[in-house]
Amino acid sequence: MSEELLINISPMESRVAVLDNGVLGEIYIERHHKLGLVGNIYLGTVVRVLPGMQAAFVDIGQSRTAFLHVNDMQREPRPVTENKNKIAEERNKNPDAGTDNTVVENGIDGLEVSPPVVSAQSTDVVPVSKTLIQHRLHESQRILVQVTKDQLGSKGARLTTNVSLPSRYLVYLPSSDHIGISQRIDGEEERNRLKTELNSLMQTVNLKGGLIARTAAERVPVDKLEEDIYYLLQLWRTICARRQEINHHQSSELIYQELALPLRSIRDLVHADTEKVIVDNVQIYEQVRSFAKEFVPFVYDRIVHYTAEQSLFDVHRVEDDLRDALKRRVDLKSGGYLIIDQTEAMTTIDVNTGSFVGGRSLEDTVYKTNLEATHAIARQLRLRNLGGIIILDFIDMLEQQHKDDVLESLQSQLAQDYAKTKITQVSELGLVEMTRKRTRESLGQQLCEPCSTCQGRGFVKTAETVCFEIFREIMRCARTYNSPKKFTVVAHAAVIDLLLTSESDTVADLEYLLGRVITFDVENLYTQEQYDIVLD
């Protein structure tokens, strides 16, 4: 699979498109006035502690206070016996893990981060109360935190006190004490090599903390790993010095800011299959080349400056794909289609045969449509960056083998996704439930806002419904106020037209019943649901 990275820069925003064999697979957008917060490190101030939720709200200088759960804080040391029992339980749950640490994805490139493990020499017993957030934090306390999720809708950013600092090949975990390997590195021999070399390097440089080898570290020589370790060590020292420098300030302050999108994409997205990186801005082109020369030298010669007059994204049809990615309907080549609806609670994807009639039988038609849909679903999840709970409504299949094939195809396509996903079996209702890790806003949330007319419902009241509401409101006003001699209805043109045509008899009957005149005015700025009744 060939891959290209397109970096488009404008005065308003930076955009990075990932093309898989010429087809848009992912899009990253960063508005210059609204930079993403994920990866930033702050010296925040605890605003409120919530014992009932075991969480706290922390001020990090943003419009909304951020959220810190007790599970995202550095763990207190456990008694040795308790820790051994915990490790035994984890091994029983995951017997294939071998000697590797059990890990949890950190959202960078499928990496997994283990919780700190107490050393064998530790025998301190920590009371249970010390693990409760109300005994660990108090209001006005200053605390070093890192953002793990951007603000999403009405929710503030999500925080952790387990700081992680990524470089090209490694992730440094100052609060941990182990070595982990990315799950995407499959070879046992390579995993053992990386673990041995990182252990040795940590002892050589006397590095306190933990390290994770990223996917890009596969088959990387030891000298490159050593350079990354020194870079991360110096970065952490700078952060600690900055914290000491501003510790006496009263306000919450940014200590470390994550790289801008163009440089972050070079660090995190390029790999051996990346054939070309095309940049359409000369200043960013020079910055990218300089960054790549130091940290990602293999891609240095593949970076190209785009100078043609036509827009870079127009040439590669990225703008067209972006417009299509905001639509509910996604057409399949066979004639079938998907309907994608994103709500606050979950995202639903419905598969339909559409105009595809197949050839042999209904079951065969359904099977082929569902197989094709798995490819489109995996692509749309990445392109739209849909996360959280996702319900897939495939067309009902009768044969169990067909259900297994569709599920296997879906899992195969999702294996290429950077975000962590989890899929269930096909339910009795023919639904597949899945989750996809969400760390930033979806494409629709980034580029769109709720409709001012329907307020995000996706529909409005009919003109007839509004007419009947107006009749009821006029009668209510007539009972409440005795003095008006005339009612003036101010409404949208479509509503007024209906009142003067098909509903004119009802208007006449109402005038006779109330003994008052009803007149009408059109207000072009009103939506179809808006109206006013003026008493004269």
What share of residues are in beta strands? 15-25%
Q: Roughly how much helix do the residues carry, as a percent range?
A: 25-40%
CATH class of the domain at 328-442: Alpha Beta
Overall CATH architecture of the domain at 328-442 = 3-Layer(aba) Sandwich
**Distance separating the two termini:** 73 Å
Main sheet attributes: strand count, strand direction, barrel closure: 6 strands, antiparallel
Number of strands: 26
The secondary structure category is alpha+beta
Cα gyration radius (Å): 29 Å
Report the CATH topology name of the domain at 328-442. Answer: Aminopeptidase
Please work out how many helical segments DSSP would assign: 13
Q: Round the mean pLDDT to the nearest integer and report it.
A: 85
Instruction: Indicate the low-confidence ranges by residue numbers.
Output: 77-84, 93-128
